[in-house]
Design a protein that fits this description.
By secondary structure, this protein is of the alpha/beta class. The chain has 12 helices and 6 strands. A 4-stranded mixed sheet has the order 1-2-6-5. It has a two-stranded antiparallel ribbon with strand order 3-4. InterPro entries: MetalloPept_cat_dom_sf, MtfA_fam, MtfA_N.
Length: 255
């Protein structure tokens, strides 16, 4: 890390946390009330750094307020409470739409033929350094209507996956392509999820997690932070490796 960046972050972290921002956390961010006091202090150090270093853009006419930035950043900082991942150094911009948006897509069939089209999305991570979020989906989490889902956790966990190659050792069919405990445990949990979805069995994990190992990791990360007890009961080994990776144990967060 360049010395200037290191010193600037130290300077930002030492500044008093704005009272208006703390009020947003207390009134608008449910996870804040669950966090142990020590993690609340860490969150208040992380939030100003992310806001200072990342470019936030309102899209499709959205007036992106300071309150929205604080809410988004608060959730983005939860996964890095114990390991900063250099404050998502690969992330350049956070683009926020008012609602779901339409994105261009390309699909390849077995013959290599490319089909181009469009599909509605509520968020996505671009490997080029951007994360896109739909504010209407974030509001569902804030209002307790998301049933254990959290768009911010989902997209930021994609960034961590890309950074550390977390799912690169698992094929779309759940086969192991790399021999280590993380990969073996993740692949086993992914195969179980595929089986659950094919058998129409109830799961704490959203069905979207059966799309690919990358989506499975992000869906599992949502459940890890939002529905920790249920995830532990259903897939204790998956919970354990996520606990080890994030260095966090949300089950113990009782506020």
């Amino acid at each position: 890390m360049p010395l200037f960046q290191y010193l600037r972050r130290k300077w930002i972290a030492r500044k008093p946390f704005p009272d208006s921002w703390k009020k947003v956390l207390e009134q608008k961010v449910p996870v804040w009330r669950r966090l142990p006091s020590a993690y609340r202090e860490v969150l208040q150090q992380h939030i100003p750094i992310i806001i200072a270093e990342k470019n936030f853009e309102g899209c499709a006419g959205l007036d992106l307020t300071e309150e929205m930035k604080v809410i988004i950043t608060a959730y983005a900082c939860v996964p890095i409470l114990e390991e900063t991942a250099n404050y998502y150094e690969d992330l350049q911009a956070i683009l926020v739409y008012p609602d779901s948006y339409v994105a261009p897509v390309m699909e390849y069939n077995e013959g290599g033929v490319v089909t181009e089209g469009f599909e509605p999305r509520s968020g996505e991570y671009w490997g080029t350094g951007n994360i896109v979020l739909a504010w209407s989906e974030i509001e569902k989490t804030l209002q307790g209507e998301a049933s254990g889902q959290n768009l911010i956790y989902h997209e930021f966990s994609h960034l961590l996956d890309d950074r550390y190659g977390l799912t690169s050792g698992v094929s779309d069919e759940g086969e192991i392509m790399r021999e280590d405990e993380w990969t073996r445990t993740l692949a086993k949990a992914y195969r179980k999820h595929l089986s659950n979805m094919r058998g129409n069995r109830r799961s704490v994990l959203d069905e979207y997690g059966a799309t690919s190992p990358a989506e499975f990791f992000s869906v599992a990360s949502e459940a890890f932070f939002e529905s920790a007890d249920e995830l532990f009961r259903e897939m204790p080994d998956l919970y354990r490796i996520l606990k080890d990776f994030y260095g966090l144990d949300p089950i113990s967060w009782k506020g």
